[in-house]
Design brief:
Blueprint: H1 3-36, H2 41-73, H3 77-100, H4 103-108, H5 111-125, H6 130-142, H7 146-158, H8 161-180, H9 182-188, H10 191-220
Length: 221
C-alpha cells in the first residue's frame, strides 16, 4: 500500500471524526461513557477500549469483504481502470453529500439499515455485562455512515482483501482518540472550527476522488 493512501486515510479519518462522526456517533459513545461512570477507572478504560476496538473490528470485516469483492472483479486492465474510475465517482459523490449534509447525505446514509440495528443497540445498552460493550461497539461500526462508505470505496478500489482490511483498520484506529474524547470535544470545539475541519476534509476527499478518476482514465486510455 502506498504511503500517500495511508496518510490520506489517517488525515481524513481524524478530520471527519471531528466534523461528522462525532456528531453522528458521539451520542452512542457518550451513552456508553455514562454507563461506565459508576465503574472504577481501570474497568472504564478496558471497556471503553473494548467498545472502540469492536467498532474497528466491524470496519475491518467490511474492509475484507469489499477488498475481496474488488479483487474478484479485476480480470483485466480495462476492468481495473473501470473499477478505479467508478471508485473516484463514488468518492466525489460522497464528498459533496457529507459536506452539504442535505438530502444526498440522507440518501447515502440509508435509515432503513439504522432501523434494523437500533433495536439491537437499545437492547444491549440496557445490559451491564462486559460482552454488551463489545457488542455495542460492533453494532456502532455497522451503522450507515457516508464516511464509512468512503473508506469502503477505497477498500473496494484497492482490489485487495488485505489492503481493504488495512484501510478500514487505519480508519477505525484513527478515529478512536477523537471518539473517546467525544463528550469533551462536543462541548469545547466551536461550530466554526468543525465547519473548517469539514471543509478541509471535503477538499482532501474531493481531490482523492479526482485523482482516482485520473488514474482510471489513464488505465483505460
Amino acid at each position: 500500500m502506498e504511503l500517500a493512501t495511508i496518510f490520506t486515510t489517517i488525515a481524513l479519518a481524524v478530520g471527519f471524526s471531528l466534523s461528522h462522526c462525532i456528531g453522528m456517533c458521539g451520542g452512542f459513545v457518550v451513552a456508553c461513557a455514562l454507563k461506565l461512570s459508576q465503574k472504577d477507572r481501570t474497568t472504564r478504560i478496558i471497556l471503553s477500549l473494548g467498545y472502540h476496538l469492536s467498532r474497528v473490528l466491524a470496519y475491518v470485516i467490511l474492509g475484507l469483504l469489499f477488498g475481496l469483492f474488488g479483487s474478484a472483479v479485476i480480470f483485466s486492465g480495462v476492468s481495473k481502470g473501470l473499477l478505479i474510475f467508478f471508485a473516484g465517482v463514488v468518492l466525489i459523490i460522497l464528498a459533496f453529500g457529507i459536506f452539504q449534509r442535505g438530502k444526498l447525505l440522507s440518501c447515502i446514509e440509508n435509515q432503513k439499515l439504522s432501523l434494523l440495528i437500533m433495536p439491537l443497540f437499545g437492547k444491549f445498552k440496557q445490559k451491564n455485562s462486559t460482552a454488551s460493550f463489545f457488542i455495542l461497539g460492533f453494532l456502532n461500526g455497522l451503522l450507515p455512515c457516508g464516511v464509512v462508505y468512503y473508506f469502503l470505496a477505497m477498500s473496494f478500489g484497492s482490489g485487495s482483501l488485505v489492503n481493504g482490511a488495512i484501510i478500514m483498520a487505519i480508519f477505525g484506529l484513527s478515529t478512536i482518540p477523537v471518539m473517546i474524547g467525544a463528550s469533551w470535544i462536543l462541548s469545547t470545539l466551536s461550530a466554526k472550527f468543525k465547519n473548517y475541519i469539514n471543509l478541509v476534509s471535503f477538499l482532501i476527499m474531493l481531490g482523492y476522488g479526482i485523482y482516482l478518476l485520473y488514474l482510471g482514465f489513464m488505465v483505460l486510455k
